[in-house]
Amino acid sequence: MKYLFPFLLTCLVILGTISTTHAQEKPNIILIYIDDWAWYGSPVAMDDTRENSRMPILQMPHLEELAQQGMKFRNAYGSPQCGPARVAIQTGQSAANNGFTLVLGKTKDDYFDQRKQYQQLPVVPTISNSSLDTTGYTIANVLAPLGYVSAHLGKWHMYCDPVEAGYVVHDGDTTNKPGNTLTAKNGKRIPDDMTDPKLMFSMTEKAIGFMEDQVQAGKPFYLQISHYAMHAGSECLPATREKYASMPELQAYYEETGQDAATINRKGDPAVWFGMGEDLDGRIGAVLDKVRELGIEDHTYVVVTADNGYRHKELGVSGLKQPLHAAKWWAWDGGIRVPMIVRGPGIPAGSKFKGNVVNYDFMPTFLEWAGGDPASLENVDGISLAGYMRGESPDKTFLNRPLYFHLPHYRSEIPHSAIIAGPHKVIHFYDAPDTPILFDISQDIGEVVNIAQQNAETHQKLFDQMMSYFEEVEARIPKINPDYDPERYKNLKSYEKYIRWGSFAGTRPLADDEQ
Asked: How far apart are CA 225 and CA 219, in angstroms?
C-alpha cells in the first residue's frame, strides 16, 4: 500500500498534463533573443557553403539539435542597434516607420541639440523616438485577445513599462546594466564563486516557472527570453572558461599575443566569450528540456535569433576571417545580418530557407501561429512567415520584397540608410549623396565591389523605392549641413572609422581580418 498513493498521484499528474495539453489547442511561442550576436557567431553554419558562417570552436549542442529539428535561415536580418531591433519586433514596423532609430535613454530632448559634438559635421542628423509607443501594436497586445498570456524576461531596452505593452510577467524597464554583473571591484578574472553569468541562469529559472504556471492553467503563452549574452562585458562560469582556455587554439592565441592564460584580463580573454556562448547554450537546452518535460513540444514554437550583427574577433581564434563588412551600428551586413533558427509544429526538420526575412516579420508571424489574421494589421511592414516555415515555396513577390534599414544619426556610425530587395542592396550615405552604392549580396556577401556604376538603372530603381517609402511613412531624413567644418570633422576620434566604413566607389580594400 505504501507505493499505491505515489503511483496514483503520478497517474493523476500525467492525466492532468495530457488533459491540459489537449484542452490547449493554440500553440505556445518562445522567442529566445540573443544580444550582439554575429551571423557566424554559433557553431551552426548559416550558409553551408561557407566555413566562416559559423564559429567552429564554440560548442552549442542544444542549438545544433534545434537546427536539426527545425529550419535555419541564411538571410535573416535584425537592426543595426539593440533598441531599434526590439521595437521593430514588437511593432512589426521598420525603424523608419516606428521612429525608434536610436537608443537615446530616458529623454525626449532633441538628439542633435543634446549632442553638441555632432554640430558642424557634414549632415544634420535627426531626432529619434525615445521609447516604444505602447498605444500601438505589440506582440503581447495582439495575442491577448486570442487568449495568450505573455512574459518578457531579461533585457527590455525600450524605455517604457512592459505592463503597458501587454506583458503580464516581466523584469521591468531594463537596459544593459543588469546583465553586467561583474565590475572593476571583481578584479580582472572570472571569480571562482560566479554562478549566474549575465543573469542567464536566474532568467531561465523564471522562464521555466512561467511555462509551468501557464501549462498548469491550460493557457497558451508567449515567452520572450531576452538574454544579456552575448553583449560586451563577457561573463561565464569559471569551469567553462577553463575548458576553453585549455584548448590548443586558445593556448596558441595566448602565446601569439604574449598573454598568460592564468592572468589575462577577462575583458580581453576569448575563452570567456566562448564560455559565455556555451553557458548560454546550456540555458537554451534547459528551456527545451522543460518544453519536452511539460509535454508541450508538439505545439510549441521555439525561435532563436539576435537583435543585431556584431564583429566577433574570436572568429580569428578559430583560424577564420570575417565574412561580412563592418559591425553593429551600421547597415552593412556585418551590423544587421543575424543567425535565425525556428522549430515548431509543421516546420520540416533540417530545412533551410534562403529568402530574405527581417525582425519586423515576427509579430505578424506570431499572430498567424496564434490563429489570428495578419491581414487585419494596419500600417505594419512585416509579413507572416508561417506558410514558408511550413514548406510553402516563396514567389517572386516575396523574394524581391524590400527590407528597410534607417540610421539618420551620428554616433558609432554616420547617417545612412539601406534597402535590400532580392539579391540587391543599396546603401546610401547622406554625406555622400552623389556616390551611388549597389551590391549583389547573393554573390558578394562581403560588400566589396560597388556595382552601381555598371547597373545604374537597378540602383536608381531601388533608391527611389527606398526614398518613396521613407516619404510614405514620414521618416526623418538628415540634411546637408550648411555649417559643415571639414577641419573639425577630421579631428573627431571616430573620423577614421567614419571614412573606413563610409561610402566608396569601385572596390573597397579588405581589412586584415576580412576575406
From this structure: 18
The three three-digit cell numbers of residue 51, written as one number: 566555413
Closest CA to 179 of 298, 285, 280: 280
Residues of the chain with pLDDT under 70: 1-24, 105-117
CA 200 to chain centroid, in Å, comes to 17
Q: State pLDDT tens for residues 54-78.
A: 999 999 999 999 999 999 999 999 9
From the list 438, 427, 414, the residue with the least C-alpha distance to 506 is 438
- Find out whether the peptide bond into 230 is cis, omega within 30 degrees of 0: yes
Beta bridge partners of 438: 426
Entry pTM: 0.94
Q: Report d(CA 249, CA 55) in Å as an integer.
A: 13
Question: What end-to-end distance do the CA atoms of the chain give, in Å?
Answer: 71
- Residue 338 has phi, psi (to 5 degrees) of -135, 160
If DSSP codes are grouped into helix, strand and coil, which group holds residue 85? Answer: helix
Quickly list DSSP for 102-154: S---S--S-HHHH-GGGTTSSEE------S--TTS--HHHHHGGGT-EEEEEE
Query: What is the grid cell recorded at 356?
Result: 530574405
Contact 328, 176 (CB under 8 A): no
Report how far apart, in Å, the C-alpha atoms of 158 and of each of 17, 130, 328, 386 are.
36, 8, 18, 27
397 burial type by CB count under 10 A (0-12 exposed, 13-18 middle, 19+ buried): exposed
CA angle 295, 35, 164 (to 5 degrees): 75
Separation CA 377–CA 384 (nearest Å)? 11
Output the CA angle 288-293-296, nearest 5 degrees: 75
Residues 501/330, Cβ–Cβ less than 8 Å: yes
- Cell digits for 360? 519586423
H helices of 294-361, where? 314-317, 333-336
Q: Give 391-428 as a 3 state SS string.
A: CCCCCHHHHCCEEEEEECCCCCCCCEEEEEECCEEEEE
By residue count, the chain amounts to 515
Residue range 446-479, pLDDT digits in tens: 999 999 999 999 999 999 999 999 999 999 999 9
- Which residue type is seen at 440? D
Consecutive H or E run containing 66: helix 61-69
- Angle CA(349)–CA(355)–CA(359) in degrees, nearest 5? 90
C-alpha cell at 148: 495568450
Q: What is the rounded CA–CA span in Å between residue 306 and residue 446?
A: 20
Cell reading at 91: 511593432
In sequence order, the 6+-apart residues with CB closer than 8 A to the CB of 191 are 182, 238
